[in-house]
């Protein structure tokens, strides 16, 4: 990545952190960098390419270090999932962006390749690897996006607890679970438990094909 393009992406990330993703525009980034908007086009062709570059920058942070490459496949996937959630906790706006845009830049594709290689090592048939990669990515990014949007807020603000207080008889499942819906949610523990379930599913899929 050239120095100017890296500077452009740094500026875009800073604007998103300060004012939200909607504030990121070619004009705003140009002003931050100190050039005309037209000067950006030599490095970023349009706003879509700018957003793709941001996705690549975020996912580049998920790439394993040399030491991580020697770990077992499930440890690598676990570490990658927690690292992705940590990124969206630092940059709440990033969850929706990662969830809504494809991985097309080199760094973004390398992050997907990490998942591919882990699934292959797990013993998943190659024809099933893309599907399970989508399952893993959808879980991690969906959880992160829901968390960032406040969908998982615990206590009285939790929509699940509000649904549990609807009239008896209308929603028998909610009525039965009402005592559990109103409990504070430990999202760290819930994410870990959900991820353990996903990894168990991958192991079961590999055994089925064995």
UniProtKB/TrEMBL annotation:
<dbReference type="Pfam" id="PF00440">
    <property type="entry name" value="TetR_N"/>
</dbReference>
<keyword id="KW-0238">DNA-binding</keyword>
<dbReference type="InterPro" id="IPR036271">
    <property type="entry name" value="Tet_transcr_reg_TetR-rel_C_sf"/>
</dbReference>
<keyword id="KW-0804">Transcription</keyword>
<dbReference type="Pfam" id="PF02909">
    <property type="entry name" value="TetR_C_1"/>
</dbReference>
<feature type="DNA-binding region" description="H-T-H motif">
    <location>
        <begin position="25"/>
        <end position="44"/>
    </location>
</feature>
<feature type="domain" description="HTH tetR-type">
    <location>
        <begin position="2"/>
        <end position="62"/>
    </location>
</feature>
<dbReference type="InterPro" id="IPR004111">
    <property type="entry name" value="Repressor_TetR_C"/>
</dbReference>
<keyword id="KW-0805">Transcription regulation</keyword>
<dbReference type="InterPro" id="IPR009057">
    <property type="entry name" value="Homeodomain-like_sf"/>
</dbReference>
<dbReference type="GO" id="GO:0000976">
    <property type="term" value="F:transcription cis-regulatory region binding"/>
</dbReference>
<dbReference type="InterPro" id="IPR001647">
    <property type="entry name" value="HTH_TetR"/>
</dbReference>
<dbReference type="InterPro" id="IPR050109">
    <property type="entry name" value="HTH-type_TetR-like_transc_reg"/>
</dbReference>
<dbReference type="GO" id="GO:0045892">
    <property type="term" value="P:negative regulation of DNA-templated transcription"/>
</dbReference>
<protein>
    <submittedName>
        <fullName>TetR family transcriptional regulator</fullName>
    </submittedName>
</protein>
<dbReference type="GO" id="GO:0003700">
    <property type="term" value="F:DNA-binding transcription factor activity"/>
</dbReference>
């Amino acid at each position: 990545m050239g120095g100017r393009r890296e500077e452009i992406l740094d500026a875009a990330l800073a604007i998103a952190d300060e004012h939200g993703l909607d504030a990121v525009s070619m004009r705003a980034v140009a002003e931050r960098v100190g050039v005309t908007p037209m000067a950006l086009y030599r490095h970023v062709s349009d706003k879509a390419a700018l957003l793709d570059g941001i996705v690549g920058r975020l996912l580049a942070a998920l790439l394993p270090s040399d030491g991580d490459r020697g770990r077992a496949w499930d440890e690598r996937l676990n570490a990658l999932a927690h690292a992705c959630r940590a990124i969206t906790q630092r940059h709440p706006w990033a969850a929706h962006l990662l969830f809504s845009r494809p991985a097309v830049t080199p760094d973004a594709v390398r992050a997907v390749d990490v998942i591919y290689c882990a699934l292959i090592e797990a013993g998943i048939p190659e024809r099933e690897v893309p599907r399970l990669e989508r399952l893993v990515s959808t879980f991690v990014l969906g959880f992160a996006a829901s968390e960032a949007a406040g969908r998982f807020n615990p206590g009285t603000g939790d929509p699940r607890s509000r649904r549990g207080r609807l009239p008896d008889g209308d929603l028998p499942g909610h009525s039965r679970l009402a005592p559990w819906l109103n409990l504070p949610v430990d999202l760290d523990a819930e994410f870990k438990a959900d991820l353990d379930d996903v990894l168990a599913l991958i192991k079961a899929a590999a055994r089925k094909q064995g």
